[in-house]
Protein 1
Amino acid sequence: MAARTPGRVIEPNRCAKIQYMKRQFLTLVALACVTMCPAQKRLVLIDQDGAGPGGSDQMAMLALLQAPSVQVLGITMVTGDAWRDEETLHTLRMLELTGHADVPVVRGAVFPLVRNEEQTRLEEALDGKVAWLGAWGGVQVTTTGAPRPVPHGPYEIPPMPEGAPATKPLDEDAAHFLIRQVRAHPHDVTIYAAGPLTNIALAVSIDPEFAALTKGIVVMGGSLNPQNNGPQKDDPETADPRHEFNFWFDPEAAHIVLHAGWPRIDVTPMDVSEKAPFTQEMLDAIGKSQTPAARYIAAWSQRRTLMWDELEACAWIDPSIITKEKGVYMDVDLSRGPSYGDTLAWPEPMQPTTGVRLVHAQMDLALPRFQKEFVDLMTRTEAR
């Protein structure tokens, strides 16, 4: 048996010094990671009825695109405030003009699941007029008695004052794009839905696991009992306190989405968005900036409206904007009558046993904080 060579002996002081140097090295590595490695961005898929140029739909998308903590995986278009194809072109052009042309845009549903324009117009004689018809003719009736704009067909593209886009939408339908992205990032993606819910309902119907694989959904929709505090006093759209356009335009889609197995549902109803006007002061502050987003808004968002979709976007970016929320079980009236498409809501334990889900309905906001955050997002100069 060979003789054993004595092991090397390390002096205690030297051993302590080595351990100290290791700790210092690991600390430096950790600090370098914090400094050099950016924080993981929150992932979102935008589903929007992107009427344009400018206006609430486009500005809401810009809020998410401009947020440094957010990565927009894509934008899916759905008919709502305008027809899908013209919305798609306005959105592509907005992305080009604001430096976000790398974000993919995908076309979705042209028509609601069940409701149609012809039947809706026939029902007006029995049920009364609807204030906002979106793609079917815009303003139906106003407090000034002004006639509604002449509607056009679903595949006609009116002149685009901001110019036609050079980029094209992806050659894929919205529902499958949504499913593909969610399955590529399971439990990491939030669905931001700010138009009629047709695309989301189709994705839920195609893939039963779609909703559960997300991080949750935020919806601009529904109405509980709004009080108009915005620039459009006596807005006829609030004459029925349970009427809201996105749910009304495709009630069956809203019903499907509200019953799906989302980890969390946040709703921005009319109640809170009626408190969020786009003011002249905000436009003036944005107009002083020369960022691409600010220039776009200064050129194409001159109309004073409520910030329905922008509030939904900013409240997801910064939840502290919302100062009051209400947990309610929410659904949509599918009976074919005057209340077809109206919001249904019950407090616990009054909800029916029909599979209705608890939603977090936003009821009040810190208005100055929201307005400042939106202006800051539009005028920020850092690269996305």
Note: The beta strands are 42-48, 70-77, 105-107, 189-193, 216-220, 265-268, 322-332, 343-346, 357-365.
Protein 2
Amino acid sequence: MADAEGDREVRIAIARSIKTRGKIPTIAAVAADLGKDIAAVDASFARLIEGRVFRAKDGSHEIYAYSPFCAVPTDFFVTAAGRVWFAIDAWDALGIPAALGEAGVIETHCADCDESLVVEVEADGATELQTWTVMQVGVPARDFWKDIDYTESTIKLFQSEEHAERWRDKAKPPASTILPIEQATALANAWYKNKLDPDWRRLTTEETEALFDDLALDPEFWRLS
């Protein structure tokens, strides 16, 4: 199959499986769904990984995370659309309701004190109940992909700004920005609301920076160029 057309077909099949079955599919499952050869689908997965459409499991082209959805259990549990989902980090967890177009409940722990945190998010990203909860990001946006595993390990939820600052002083990430929960859910909603749509595509650098500007994010921290 022609690469661009075939990759789009595979991406849509992945998204359809997540939305209708509640699970991230394997290469074999996508091949079966599409009636395609496994080797051809595996090659498509490899190209999608190269294009940063999803993250692969170590030593494989199988999906580790089709963000905001993670294929394995994590400390971020999200209940939405009648199912329990997992996310790699706080940004992704807050984006799962947006991707599904459903309200959701995020359960995790404060990264500073380990107390339970619950965040309720509407399908449009609105949240009204978590006045003091914040999200911290510890790597500036332009450096996210230099070490994406480390970047994701710094994107956490905290009971308050005080807790976020205390964690930052201990962990000493290379940079830090702290977002009130309303701004964090707005970011996650804007970033992921179209992720399962057939016509989804990665934003350009200019589009991404415009999105960050629209959300009134710190331009120094969030600039990409």
Note: DSSP finds nine helices and ten strands in the chain.
